Amino acid sequence: MREWFTAGRSAAALGLVGTLLLAGCSRPAAQAEAEASSKVRIAVGVDAAYAPFYLAKQEGLFTKAGLDVELTQTEGGAAITNAVIAGVAQLAASSDATIVTLMAKTPDLRAVAVFQESSKYLKVVLGKGITDASQIKTMAVAPGLVTLAAARYLESKKIDRASVKFVTASAPDFPALLGKGDVDAYVVYEPWISRGVEQGGTVHESIGDYGMKYVQWIDADQKWLAGNTELAGKVVKVIAEAADIAAKEPQRAADATQKEIKIAAEETLKSIGQITFGVRDLTDADVTGAKSTADFFLQEKLIATAPNLDEQLLKNWYSQNATK
Length: 324
Hints:
Blueprint: H1 3-23, H2 26-36, E1 39-44, H3 51-58, H4 61-64, E2 68-73, H5 78-85, E3 91-95, H6 96-103, E4 109-118, E5 123-126, E6 138-141, H7 145-156, E7 165-168, H8 174-179, E8 185-188, H9 192-198, E9 202-206, E10 214-221, H10 222-227, H11 229-248, H12 250-261, H13 265-272, E11 276-280, H14 284-299, H15 309-312, H16 317-321
Parallel strand pairs: 1-2, 1-3, 6-7, 6-8
Antiparallel strand pairs: 3-10, 4-10, 4-11, 5-8, 5-9
């Protein structure tokens, strides 16, 4: 078994254990509070991909809809949905590839809608002195989407993945690893693309250049969702409203993002231009793509069993519960 696969599984396991320990004693209390009130915590990352959520909060859209919603910021990646698994959030938003790996371990996870997609937002960053993919010996990866994007990049260049060591880290650590020469490249999203350039890296191409795209799902725990379908529908309806605003009036989304996570509006505007925002139902095509992703992680022994995606991806949930 390749060294990086073991490291990836260990890091993912430690990340989940850490989240659970952090939630630990508070999980029953958090669940009880959520059940006793209408408060909904949504776990999100800290980059432009979450601009609709920031806009909904900053412009008071949740409050106007009579909802008590709190955004729970995480470092991104698996940590976002792990907040739902740990019971410290009721909804989360993350990439399809990342959620698929967690669904394999958590059968109660459900995806209810897509809120954005892109073939341009993730980019390949090469380290100083690296001018061609054939020179890459090490890549920084994070469990889920970033690992898949890195592997697909190497495949597109006809490079054997066994010849490249994958160093598992959190995305915020990627630029420093690149600057120190600990890794030769990575595939990631902003602001860690720009931070990598500041460390002497160069942007090579987008994931769409080698035929890849991702979608971001909104997900929840089935037990909470079953008892709070109407509430969840109202929350997702507001997210859909905010996503439409972000698509039509990106400056509003950029300003909200700057207020929420202190990323310059100009930087967010550039990123938003590479993302298609819009909440929609999960489709047969989404299920097919997710199954292909699950096959990849199974083949590489990053998950032990395949998730039941026909059950865990709730097609038509959005149109049935969040559009009225």
